[in-house]
Amino acid sequence: MKNDQTVLTDTFGRRFPYLRLSVTDVCNFRCSYCLPDGYKKSGCEPFLSTEEIGRVVRAFAAMGTWKIRLTGGEPTVRSDFTEIVEIAAATPGIERLAFTTNGYRLPERAEEFYKAGLRAINISIDSLKADKFREITSHDRLEEILDGIDAALDAGFEAVKINTVLLKGLNDDELDDFLDFVQDKPLSLRFIELMRTLDNQDYYGAHHLSGQTVRDRLTARGWQEIERAEGAGPAVEFIHPDSRGRIGIIAPYSKDFCKTCNRLRISAKGALHLCLFGSGGYSLREYLQSDDQMEALQDKIMELMRFKRSSHFLQQNDSGATPHLASIGG
Ligand code: SAM
Ligand code: SF4
């Protein structure tokens, strides 16, 4: 156990064992709530190099972070993604390496990812109907993504989770299909409440479905909320006596959501984001240029922690400066 001076803590006493590290903004999908017009290059600053990523991971690990999730954009589009995984996995102190992916080419690559050191995978699937899946993501790849789940389980992944954004009028009629889907599988499926970002205001107005509505539907079907483990993040988890799979709800608009915040974010260009819905990031890039800067890097991160607010202001319709979640890693 590290002493409190070296453990990342904010002014509200929250600790941060978990880092979400974006490795690219680029995405090959065009999810209608995220990048409906596809990826557009933002500025000419390059994404973090493998050396810079290695330094970020080492600095956080030295301050008590033991879980890292690689995300994006679509993290697997980076040609050096496997190398990034190997670097993070080999960093002392990192006990859990996870990633979030749209599942593109997962059947072919799941084993490679596991061998490189990834142990937990979140696969985004917003519909179990091929035409609806295509409508939401602009890719006709549902079958491939479903095969990817089996490939991840076969490869040995310890945790395979599905991320599903339930959208009013688009896929919310599939709730029972999703529950059936996990019934006999060792999967955890998370319903994520649609979040308003700068770019999706009208879409949000048309398709937002509250986490409370989903929660009510689950309890009406006999799902029971389980007590959260100490240090667990903001997902509320449910089990059902007839289901092998589990269901989670991530409802950022719910009261007290931020009380259990245990994560920080680094953007693909090296900015520290204290909140998904903050007013921007704090660039750490100048501290990532040499191994000799490790102490200065850690001091800078510690210093920035005092700016972490107790909560986001989504309820007041303030979703901060985030254009879409691909920009800082959802
Ligand atoms: N491309 C990868 C993927 O889709 O899994 C990783 C990045 S994506 C930004 C991470 C997660 O954020 C996905 O599960 C996606 O469905 C979710 N997401 C993106 N935009 C969102 C929004 N506005 N509200 C809620 N979830 C969102
Ligand atoms: Fe790409 Fe993921 Fe955003 Fe979909 S949710 S557009 S897969 S970054």
List keywords for this structure.
twelve-stranded mixed beta sheet, binds iron/sulfur cluster, 9 helices, TIM Barrel, 330 residues, 12 strands, alpha/beta, binds S-adenosylmethionine
Report on the structure:
With 330 residues, the chain is of the alpha/beta class. The protein has a single domain (18-327), classed as Alpha-Beta Barrel (TIM Barrel). It has nine helices and twelve strands. β2 (67-72), α2 and β3 form a beta-alpha-beta unit. The longest helix is centred in the middle third of the chain and has 14 residues, at 142-155. The model has no long low-confidence stretch (mean pLDDT 92). It binds S-adenosylmethionine and iron/sulfur cluster. Residues 27, 33-34, 71-72, 74, 100-102, 124, 163, 165, 192, 194-195, 197, 200, 325-326, 330 line the site of S-adenosylmethionine.
CATH topology tier name: TIM Barrel
Give the percentage of residues in beta strands: 15-25%
Name the CATH class. Alpha Beta
Q: Which percent bin holds the helix content?
A: 25-40%
SSE inventory with pairings:
Blueprint: E1 18-24, H1 50-62, E2 67-72, H2 81-89, E3 96-101, H3 106-116, E4 120-124, H4 130-137, H5 142-155, E5 159-166, H6 175-182, E6 188-193, H7 201-207, H8 211-220, E7 224-225, E8 236-239, E9 246-250, E10 263-266, E11 271-273, E12 282-283, H9 294-304
Parallel strand pairs: 1-2, 1-10, 2-3, 3-4, 4-5, 5-6, 6-9
Antiparallel strand pairs: 7-8, 8-9, 10-11, 11-12
Helix pairs in contact: 1-2, 1-9, 3-5
Bound molecules: S-adenosylmethionine and iron/sulfur cluster.
Iron/sulfur cluster binds at residues 27, 29-31, 34-35, 72-74, 102, 124, 326.
